[in-house]
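This week, look over our next protein:
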Amino acid sequence: MKAQEPLSISMFTTSGDAGKSTTDINSQFIFSQLLIDCLLRLKPNDMDRKELISRCENEYKDNRIQLAKLREFRNYYTSDQALLWYTRDSFFYKTLNAALRKQDIHIIFLYRSFIADIYHQLQHSQSQYPVRVYRSQLMSIDEIDYLDSSIGQFVSINSFFSTSKAYRTAAFFAGNKNEQTCLEQVLFEIDADPKLIGIRSFANITSLCYFIGEQQILFMPGVMFRILHIHHDSKQVSTIQLKLTTNNEQDFKSIHNLEQLDLISFGHMLIDMKKYDEAEIFFRHLLDDLP
């Protein structure tokens, strides 16, 4: 859980925003919601895994340590080690979360079997009781102001979202204010109830982590929160209070209906959103998966 890592979010709003149409804002939110669901419905194949490893080997060709980890991953990875690899300091975590943050459809496709492995591990270890968790984050002033003007609205996290049950642990990961990039330190305070219907899987992965002792709660990509309140303190970090929510709420009726889309309809939805490059990549992968 690193505060220095950028956080990719999408907003869902029921009110207009200056300079942006509600439709454009919500379309990106809906896209981030449906992407992972559609990928989990596609069958993985060995060709994609080989291409992923080949790409990573090329990216880390001058890094002996990561190349050694790549060889270990290629030869010995099993589905029950997904979270072990995700929490390890390796190419796996770095390239996967970077692809999710950037919404790099092709790389996300190549990772889909491993995303499915993480998903199944989180489902198996799904939290059973409501929890309050924390995450420290460095954010730009513009990002904070945007969230501040969106109290009561909804936010979706596009990548895996790592949090801690321990306030002190979250504060430790925050680091110091970055004067050079004008980033501010904020603290997310999140209440999550696993009994809500239709939520993304989240679990305490402490026993599944590579590093022992971190009380880490991990959420699947696309997890949705309502922004409850932002408390600004000139002497301390700003605290952003979030509450886990579900697409069964009335505001998300359109998303709930879209979840029944077949895969080809999802590709057409990308075209309707003018995401032409993403649509082409999606259809090419879909074509490869068809008999």
DSSP finds twelve helices and nine strands in the chain.
